[in-house]
Specification:
The strands form 14 sheets. A four-stranded antiparallel sheet has the order 1-2-3-4, with no helix packed on it. The chain has a four-stranded antiparallel sheet with strand order 5-6-7-8, with no helix packed on it. Strands 12-13-14-15 form a four-stranded antiparallel sheet, with no helix packed on it. The protein is built from no helices and 53 strands. Helices cover 0% and strands 48% of the residues. With 605 residues, the chain is mainly beta. 51% of the residues are buried.
Length: 605
């Protein structure tokens, strides 16, 4: 989520999870729809965003003069409700009380409309760190004047614990029930405290750099932290085993917060952005050797397709059949006796389509009923592109080469109709279809790209993309961008409508064989035979992560990346290797995705 022009120092969800609030150091408050990531509106002059009321309909904040204001989100109007008389810390769950610094420089609970007493302090030292529990019962504060960490019972306004952390404390997080507290410092170490006993339970060397943003999930089961190293990490708050690691920010992370259901997390950074991440704990399989078609086949590129709910995937199995597996356990759910070139799920999810090496398309019903009659094309085809299958069950094919030319043809499975003739001399081109099935892209062996209209059967655009042949193509889900990979080792991002170059990524040192956009269009994955899968941020226009495939020297290029596929929910990046191995990676999204499954770090799950 972009729009701020200063450091994003706060980001948090509304109680119902429908909205996200972000705040930057220039006093700008922005509200976002948590599903679409669209900005709802912004407000300037906000000193401290206290928080949402329990119904999520209002947000309490303070202005630089310490006045308290209530923002009506539906009406998009704000009105003054009182004066804090000091620094605002937060809002109680009932929305009728605020927590401010009292005269004794400790957090104090006070009715929202109550006037401050003359003795209340106006400010606190700048190095003071303060946090309150989600249930509104407790608050903790640390800083130079406290000589450690002080925990306060807000209802009784009394100190209940003094935790002796001798370091300058850069971040605090308190569990929802107020019983556990985590402190962080410039050394990157997280210290976990038992508040009731006043004892340190454990110490985690989580980072090598200062930690600033930390948070517990609403149920207290997960814990997240981020700081100078630009990475957000998650731990199981019971065992303190490290889980996911999220890399996407280009600068220091200042704040993190979980959604109410714990399935998503938002982080704010000095790069002036807020990023939303999927969160989950169920691990996925790491590596499935020889699961797919491998080097014993003339065509070493396997076929993989995910179902629309991401819970199943189909593939061209190593034994020469089509198989359907569960994504989470790799349990084989169905086997169909066909030596397929590639596979796809039908748009309604009720069948699997497989195309044999003879060009015949067969439909297999997932409910176990008999296979549907085969569709025989008018010609034999050398390549069949079916991922994703368009709503019209329309696919593109490369016809068998003649003496002088290879032709791209369009086919609708139901009618075996063809009609687009494009291509290049002597060598088979690379092809891709837009998600809506209206545009076909052809990558030529000479390095050019052709864009064809499916409706009119006319060529819309032709441009030179690379000096060497185009070896991979991918179209963003919204059809805005086209990515090309080449034998010249580069990956280039283009405006699909104009052929205007947007960005060039020189992260590989071998030809690029596979490309894939994430479902939200924010991430581009590129695969080669150089031991790496590269993840590039589309909005940032730069390479942000590398996924290592193996160590040592590859054997006969069997470990080259032949195919990349994101699952529809955006949580999995599947890589099909030349030796038939399938590897699942934890995807690294740059915006909202649903999270049923999540793995460990930016590496194989």
């Amino acid at each position: 989520m972009t729009g701020h022009s200063q450091v994003v120092d706060a980001a948090f969800y509304s109680p119902d999870g429908a909205r996200i609030a972000t705040h930057s150091l220039d006093g700008n408050l922005r509200l976002w729809d948590s599903t679409s990531m669209e900005e709802l509106f912004s407000l300037d002059g906000v000193a401290v965003p206290g928080g949402f009321t329990a119904d999520g309909a209002q947000l309490i904040f303070s202005k630089p003069d310490a006045s308290l204001w209530r923002l009506d989100i539906g009406a998009r109007r704000s009105a003054q409700v009182g004066s804090a008389g000091g620094r605002l810390i937060g809002v109680s769950p009932d929305g009728r009380h605020v927590v401010i610094f009292g005269a004794d420089q400790l957090p104090s609970l006070r009715p929202l409309d109550e006037k401050p007493s003359p003795g209340e302090v106006k400010d606190v030292p700048v190095d003071t760190t303060v946090v309150m529990s989600a249930d509104g019962r407790r608050a903790a504060v640390a800083g130079r004047i406290y000589h450690g960490i002080v925990v306060v019972d807000l209802a009784e306004h009394r100190q209940i614990a003094a935790l002796m952390d001798a370091r300058p404390v850069t971040g605090l997080a308190i569990s929802p029930d107020g019983e556990r507290l985590v402190s962080a410092g410039f050394d990157g170490v997280l210290k976990v405290w038992n508040v009731d006993r006043g004892e340190q339970e454990r110490s985690l060397k989580a980072f090598l750099d200062p930690v600033w943003g930390m948070a517990f999930s609403r149920d207290g089961r997960s814990f997240a932290a981020g700081g100078n190293n630009r990475t957000v990490r998650i731990w199981n708050a019971a065992s303190w085993i490290e889980g996911d690691s999220y890399l996407g920010h280009s600068s220091t992370i200042r704040s993190v917060a979980f959604s109410p259901d714990g399935r998503r997390m938002v982080s704010g950074s000095e790069d002036e952005q807020a990023l939303v991440w999927p969160v989950g704990w169920r691990p996925l399989p790491t590596e499935m050797p020889q699961l797919l078609r491998g080097p014993q086949w003339i065509d070493r590129t396997p076929g993989i397709a995910f179902s629309s709910d991401s819970r199943r995937f189909a593939g061209t199995a190593a034994d020469g059949t089509i198989k359907v597996w569960r994504t989470d356990t790799i349990e084989c759910l169905a086997t169909y006796p066909e030596e397929a070139r590639t596979v796809a799920f039908s748009p309604d999810g009720k069948s699997v389509l497989g195309e044999g090496f003879d060009g015949i398309v067969q439909r297999w019903m997932l409910d176990g009923s008999e296979a549907q009659p085969a569709n025989r094309p008018k010609a034999r085809f050398a390549n069949w592109q079916v991922d994703p299958l368009t709503p019209q069950e329309r696919v593109t094919l490369v016809a068998e080469q003649s003496e002088t030319r290879a032709m791209c043809q369009l086919c609708e499975i139901s009618s075996a109709r063809d009609g687009i003739f494009a291509g290049a001399m002597l060598s088979t081109p690379t092809i891709a279809m837009s998600l809506d099935g209206q545009t076909m892209y052809v990558g030529l062996p000479q390095g050019g790209v052709e864009v064809w209209s499916v409706a009119t059967r006319q060529r819309l655009l032709a441009f030179t993309a690379h000096k060497l042949g185009v070896s991979a193509l991918a179209v963003s889900p919204d059809g805005r961008y086209l990515a090309t990979g080449s034998l010249d080792n580069s990956t280039v991002l283009w405006e699909a409508a104009t052929g205007q170059k947007v960005a060039t990524f020189f992260a590989h040192n071998r030809p690029v064989w596979a490309l894939a956009f994430s479902p939200d269009g924010q991430t581009l994955a590129a695969g080669s035979c150089d031991k790496q899968i590269i993840l590039c941020s589309v909005p940032l226009r730069r390479h942000v992560a590398s996924l290592s495939l193996y160590t040592g020297v590859p054997k006969n290029y069997e470990q080259e990346v032949r195919l990349l596929r994101f699952s529809p929910d955006g949580n999995i990046l599947a890589a099909g290797l030349g030796d038939g191995t399938l590897r699942f990676f934890r995807a690294a999204p740059f915006s909202e995705t649903d999270a049923r499954d999540a793995g460990k770090k930016s590496s194989p799950l």
